[in-house]
Fold this protein.
Amino acid sequence: MKLPLLTTLLTLLSISSSMSLSYAAIPPGALSSSGSASLSQQGRDPAQFPGYVEQLKATARLQGFNQATIDTAFTGVHFVDRAIQSDRSQLEHKVTLNDYLSRVLTLGKIEKGRDRLTAYRAQLDSVAAASGVSPSYIVALWAMESQFGTIQGKEDVISALATLAFEGRREAFFTKELMAALKIIQQQGMTADELKGSWAGAMGQSQFMPSSFLNYGKDGDGDGKIDIWNNVDDVFASIANYLQKEGWKAGQGWGTEVTLPQGFDTELSGLKNAQAKTPLQWQQLGVTVKAASQGNAPGRAWIITPEDGDGRSFMVYDNFRTLMHWNRSYYFAISIGMMADAIAQ
């Protein structure tokens, strides 16, 4: 996810272990699935979480964080049982594309998107001019990630990340994100109480994971800080900065829905470079566009047919692949493209 975000498709729908050993000689991230038994298989006892936190502190010291930052970050750290439950529940539910779109692409959200596009037109146009990212895509991501900033998550990010590292299935990943969160505290002069986010550690109105904040967060109003929790100028600039750095093609759209000919070779579907063709080449193979896409004509395109996608297929462009960097879900990227198209009308 961006890593914005571990807010994957299934996270958005709320629909995608803890070990009885001493941690004295086991640094966080030292054990992985390559061992004889994974941490989640062995099972960790939450009573050992305080001992694990001490190991996280030791890791932070080894990475050069000063004691003041460590004290600020870990004061009040606690086990977040909901993070474990939510992380595990992601693997237990599947929805079809139509069901997903009906939930996340509501008329009410589209109308709010149009209202926000109008209300913040000056700021959005300024960001678009600097980045090449259309205002409608910035607003669409803002809408999907945090309901225009109204749902950012209230979890203590340090506690959530420490808990998920402790759980063990993705220990190295969450330990890395925790160290990134410490760097934010140190660089931005923040407290742990100010570092709020989702159960997975995604933060602010853009739902950036800490590493994404460090890589893509941008000061949009020149006040010397990056505040993706409260400052929409910083939120818009950061979203656009992410897309620009990940290869956004200015003026292009994301794609369009298509009908595939009978007997279409499914091996042609996918997002690999070798599977790209021009839109004209796809049409010569019998692919029929249902509606013209917004934006300039792309030089190359891909055909995708999402799993559990109710038989729907799409011709997608480079910007769709960039949206997939943000969140590796066909459903999510399609919803962003459709939302951007809808609010731009």
